[in-house]
Amino acid sequence: MFAVISRILYPNWLSIAFFTKGWGLFFSEEIYNISVFIGIVFLWHYLIAGFAVTSVLTNIAIAIGTRRYLAGGLCTSSKKLTGQTVIITGANGGIGKETARDMCRRGANVILACRDVRKAEAAKLDIQAEGGSVQVRKLDLSSLQSVRDFASGIISDNIKVHILINNAGVMMCPYMETTEGFEIQMGTNHLGHFLLTNLLLPQMKHGQPARIISLSSLAHIGGKLDLNDLNNKKSYDKIQAYCNSKIANVLFTRQLAKQLSGTNIQVFSVHPGLVYSNLGRYLMPQFVSDYLYCVMQKTTLEGAQTTIYCATDAHQHSEMYFSDCAVGWAASAAKDDVTADKLWKISEKLVDIQK
């Protein structure tokens, strides 16, 4: 608990660059949240504190500083990705869509790998309005056959993949199962991406620099994997199941780094932060999320920043875990190489990797 508190009070991205870069992006994203905070300041002074100019300005500065802190690290890289192919799962909305938009602006050819093709096509039109090459391909990570069909299409079209972003996810939902009978969070967040990544590796070993980025979460610190029951069928708890799937993401990344040692591919797991998106739809009423809780969260563009950083400027690190555009602190259990190896072997059997 002390480690968690210390990381909140002194985040690893707190540096000179934090105070000097990214303010344009911050203010463009924060109009609503800053307005709410300033409104609270004025209400406080109107009802209680009185309107002393110095005090009002000081509290406005504190309000803006608070939002800047909550927005976290911002990627300021200007790196171009001209001609590179980027595959992003779950890119029809939220963090994934903002990541796809950024990749397109950098000149990449982006493939939106999504379960809901209709929503993905709408996202494609929105992204292409700003320029860029975008295509939509069907991918349902809760179906291993769908994963195989998607990968088969990429291979048959002989597409060289430069960046794979395992972005899609399910969060703290009621008990459900994938097509193959896996618990939906472990099946989608880990096993689906595990199979997808392994099937696409031949398309990434082309000599040019390549990257694999898997979205994890700070929630991984609560992960307690039972390697004999990854499905959590014995006693399902939606929060614990989510934490388990997120530590699996970090452990997968660690073992993947070993598998790819000496190749052209770098790997990363990412904590995007507490983000206002549809992912938390099972946690609270939509009204609370849309108008109240959102002022304490990152916007989707802010939430995409660490993914973008890992797709552009970051270098693989032994922690295998990044947060707010900097190397993060992974939990000790997420750095257990023995567990990572065991999880890999179990995952291979569950998805029938040789099929």
UniProtKB/TrEMBL annotation:
Family matches, as SUPFAM superfamilies: NAD(P)-binding Rossmann-fold domains
Transmembrane helix listed as a keyword: yes
Recorded GO MF terms: oxidoreductase activity
InterPro entries according to UniProt: NAD(P)-bd_dom_sf, SDR_fam
Pfam families attached to this UniProt entry: adh_short (PF00106)
Keywords annotated in UniProt: Membrane, Oxidoreductase, Transmembrane, Transmembrane helix
Parts of the chain that traverse the membrane: 31-64
Keyword Transmembrane helix appears in the UniProt entry: yes
Family: Belongs to the short-chain dehydrogenases/reductases (SDR) family.
Protein name as it appears in the record: Retinol dehydrogenase 12-like
Species assigned in the record: Hirondellea gigas
Native organism taxonomy: Eukaryota, Metazoa, Ecdysozoa, Arthropoda, Crustacea
